Amino acid sequence: MTSYKVMMLAYHSDPSMIYGKETGGMNVYVLELSKALAKQGHSIDIFTRQIDSKSKPVKIANNVRLIPIPAGPYVHVSKHKLHLYVKDFVQGIRKFMRSDNVYYDIIHCHYYLSGLAGLSMKKSLSSAPLLMTFHTLGMMKNLVARHSLEKETQYRIEAETHLSKRANHIIALSDKDRDYIQYLYDVPKNKISVISPGVDTKIFRPINKMTAKQAIGADFHHKLILFVGRIEPLKGIDSLFYALKILFVQNPKLKKKVCLWIVGGDITQQKSLWSEELKKLEKLRYLLGLQTQVVFVGQKPQNKLPFYYNASEMLVMPSHYETFGIVALEALSCGIPVISTHVSGISRLAEDSKDLYIIPANSPIDLADQMAKILTDTTKYKKIRHILIRQSKHNISWDFVARHVAAVYAAFFSTAVDKLVAK
Amino acid sequence: MTSYKVMMLAYHSDPSMIYGKETGGMNVYVLELSKALAKQGHSIDIFTRQIDSKSKPVKIANNVRLIPIPAGPYVHVSKHKLHLYVKDFVQGIRKFMRSDNVYYDIIHCHYYLSGLAGLSMKKSLSSAPLLMTFHTLGMMKNLVARHSLEKETQYRIEAETHLSKRANHIIALSDKDRDYIQYLYDVPKNKISVISPGVDTKIFRPINKMTAKQAIGADFHHKLILFVGRIEPLKGIDSLFYALKILFVQNPKLKKKVCLWIVGGDITQQKSLWSEELKKLEKLRYLLGLQTQVVFVGQKPQNKLPFYYNASEMLVMPSHYETFGIVALEALSCGIPVISTHVSGISRLAEDSKDLYIIPANSPIDLADQMAKILTDTTKYKKIRHILIRQSKHNISWDFVARHVAAVYAAFFSTAVDKLVAK
Fold this sequence. Notes:
Two copies of one chain form a homodimer.
Chain A: E1 5-9, H1 25-39, E2 43-49, E3 58-61, E4 64-69, H2 86-100, E5 106-110, H3 111-121, E6 130-133, H4 138-145, H5 151-166, E7 169-172, H6 175-184, E8 192-194, H7 209-216, E9 223-228, H8 237-250, E10 258-263, H9 276-287, E11 294-298, H10 305-311, E12 312-317, H11 326-333, E13 338-341, E14 356-359, H12 364-376, H13 387-394, H14 398-411, H15 417-421
Parallel strand pairs in A: 1-2, 1-5, 2-4, 5-6, 6-7, 7-8, 9-10, 9-12, 10-11, 12-13, 13-14
Antiparallel strand pairs in A: 3-4
């Protein structure tokens, strides 16, 4: 098998952060994909913007290096300003390539900002095909954001439109993602491959519920409903609060038994420093009288998440837009039922998995109905967790994902390279 | 039959505006309900905030008076500031009652601001039951607005919560409306009656498509898709634009045949003075390359609307939240198929009407699919329009609505008045 030297661009978010507090789906995707590609003999350098003056290139697995590149200040920078330092990022990569004497066969960009960096890199690596994974799409974010099209956003959409034309190939994370790229960005269907994310089934596995509850300090008598994700309006957490309120009005006995745990968001600081969305949710918690039934748990590292999943009765993903929804896969891999809105990429798995329930977005009554069904379905917890067997059948391991991605890479180097790589 | 003297409070929006440009569902509801109640022998005074220094009490039908009351400046005032003048409004009504020597049996309030006025009126009319029709709910608006809970909004939600407790009875416009009032505002189910709006089947009736197209100046060869409503984010017009774009990518031949007409919004002024949402949509129209396929028609008076409905292939109501969605009823009454999101109150009619199609909100691909089906279903336009017969069967006339509302009024005056009216 041919092995490739891959430049993986993760400009705006450092994938190694999943070992700390940040557990975003994109970071998991980039890191796990890179590791799995490396296991198959490819060599991966992940480039990310340096946010700590002391950080250095580090080997994070055999054949996987994480290389921080100085670009802009050594602090967190708002997404709306990050495009200002893309040029520095590209120059930094070129400098690294010279000093390390390294060349790449493939440029694989994650998120549009990395795409912009990738386009510039083509000047130095003109024979390397440019692959694009958007992760989220500006046009779809706008649809759910309910805000005016700001200048910044217009910039992002124009950049994505440009990248859709210029990239040699696009990897979409789900059928829905593919459809929107195809229809809204005018991309020919054959220029897009759908490759869903995977899950590390060694980490995300069934664990005894009581063991898991003990590990996270949860009351043995409580039934936990779990949310995992960033605290952002498009995650629809307010809808979940409404649903919980409705659940309790409809089933008053559950009010003493059921708790909603929100994993995500920085709750380590004073409340006055909380994000706008977290403050809004905190107000809503009180407005709906859910003070004791909703717990903000804060961010948790990736290796602690299996305990949260396994301690819970279900994961709820009430998003207004979700390119895929990797946390749903993690929960299913632990044998935990998932309620997801119809807008997530994972919703297509509904036909395959009896542990996945699909509801319309923004419909707290439907969500409450579905939560009540799972909470009162006692057989659900008696049955043996067949889920992992089903998963291996569906090939959702990262090795499987990496093989598919490598096949996309390989297509550029089989025959008629010039034709394929030509713009 | 007993006849009642009803104080109809429409503080923030003058129902007579439907004869001009404003065609909001609430104005239609208050005016048509009042006229229908009057026909049944009741006597209705509609009080509204005076926005023109010259306007005077006017008889708008037999037994229906519209009485403008000075409260705040004689200009349009932002909804967020209107609560400041509720007190003046109440004093003005008291003054009118003294000079006119009139007393009321019922206080029926529309929208929470009128509810606040109604609560104050109880001091003068302690024996009159207070009836509340919310029309829209602050908590549901917040759910779709994707904004932080601002102070104003918090005020509205608290007011609605207070009114839910203090009103003697609540009239909900749909089953969904009732559910949300019951669950989110903690109102006992038996304190809420569901009475859907009606439609004036004499005005909204089938008309020959070519006659209708001629009346509105539409190209005979174009197939029209129609949107009717206020230009506001929660109406989901951006989602409709995306769907149109998708429709054209999937069916390129339709691009020369199909036009989307947007009825609503003030487009009479310079573009620089357009509302933020209208500007956003104008940008989106260009971004998606729909310059010639989307037409902003502007506001149209109620009596012109039947021509727009009849000239169209379908009405699309892509709202994120809609207490009922009276325009859908108007379109159906003209025999025009309607695509509505699952969040509208009218969605429950889907089982009854083959001309009503329900899709999830925020799902342009589903919307495009549904539009394509209607546009390519040629038998749809050959079949005789049975819709009016079906409607009379379903009793959606305003007379039917008024009889139900009067029955709610009557419940307070049958037996045990004191017990019923007691707080």
